[in-house]
Amino acid sequence: xKRNYGHDRMNAQPxxxxxxxxxxxxxxxxxxxxxxxxxxxxxxxxxQIQKDLVTPAQAGGISIVNVETxxxxxxxxxxxxxxxxxxxxxxxxxxxPGDVLDIGIYEAGVTLFGGSVGTAAxxxxxxxxxxxAERLPPIRVxxxxxxxxxxxxxxxxxxxxPDAIAGLIRHALHGFSEDPQVIVxxxxxxxxxxxxxxxxxxxxxxxxxxxxxxxTDALALAGGTRGEVKDLTIxxxxxxxxxxxxxxxxxxxxxxxxxxxxxxxxxxLNRPHTYSVMGAAGKVAxxxxxxxxxxxxxxxxxxxxxxPHLGDAEAIFVFRMEPDDTGTIRPTVYHFNLMHPSGFFLAxxxxxxxxxxxxxxNARANQTDRLLTLVSELFTPLITVISxxxxxxx
Length: 394
What we know:
By secondary structure, the protein is α+β, with helices and mostly antiparallel strands. It has three domains: 46-76 and 275-367, Outer membrane lipoprotein wza fold like, CATH 3.10.560.10; 100-188, wza like domain (wza like fold); 193-270, Outer membrane lipoprotein wza domain like (Outer membrane lipoprotein wza fold like, Roll), CATH 3.10.560.10. 28% of the residues lie in helices and 25% in strands. It has helices at residues 5-35, 46-52, 119-122, 162-172, 215-221, 247-252, 296-302, 341-349, 364-393, and strands at residues 63-66, 100-107, 132-135, 139-140, 146-149, 153-156, 181-188, 193-198, 204-207, 232-238, 241-246, 265-270, 274-279, 285-288, 311-323, 329-336, 357-362. The strands form four sheets. Strands 1-16-15-17-13-14 form a six-stranded mixed beta sheet, with helices on both faces. It has a five-stranded mixed beta sheet with strand order 9-8-12-10-11. α1 runs antiparallel to α9. The chain is rod-shaped, with a radius of gyration of 41 Å. The two termini are 23 Å apart.
């Protein structure tokens, strides 16, 4: 019987393709099975974290808090205490170095300065034509707090009010002039002013018109702040000492609105509060607070939630440095289970703090899902080849 060698060669080609495809699938399957133990992860699972943090001693001082009831929630963080107190309001008309004074001297009879009064004053009923007036050029208080006047000499005026300075000048001129009358006014003030800078519309020197202006008053007089209230910090420097307050705490009333004092320096700084997102999250990032009072529920939403292919809703963790009962700062981990409805309500009550780390735990079961997905994507073309070869063979 004569064989058809051409037909045999045609049948041999698809059979060879079939065996090569089957070998490739087998080889790839062995490689995948060998690599399952090292399949890439984005971090530990919730069970691994719980196991490692059974006790603070085993965890190197790290404690874990399973937030299952409202009693497990941390106490609200109070606003930063100011290192300053209001005390008694200070006068705003005290003279100091750098101030510029206007001085007018009125004399009767024998005069020292030989001035003259204005026409309007001369027309007043009972005007004494012997009265002479002299308005001296503006006089600056020197760095030692003193002024120099003709005949009166050097007078120390720092710390005095204008009325007291007028009495000091009048006493110094006694014996040189017949009953001189002195009027003193502040032309320019340095002592009774504050400096406002940073994120305000009109930074610069601000003269205090009363002794009742507060921090928020000063910011308003400087044209208001630039940027969002939740991102701003006020740094107050007074007599060499500094302290900081969040503007949002002042606006909400959680922090006391201090009275400003002459010589204060106010700096408005743009310092947004941030938290880190890690693990099996929708995105791994450093995120600014969306609001001044950011809750865990809002932070999860802002981060995009857990990755549906990787994350475990039972394993939501917040890592932070927290003071214990003795006031010692210790690392603390808060665990939330969002598979229980109560977890969502607890997440709404939990406040995120600056520099917190929000971690989404990996789900162990999801590793299998990832493997199956990868197998499907990689070997669908090979399965198609096998199917085609079988059709040709049949």
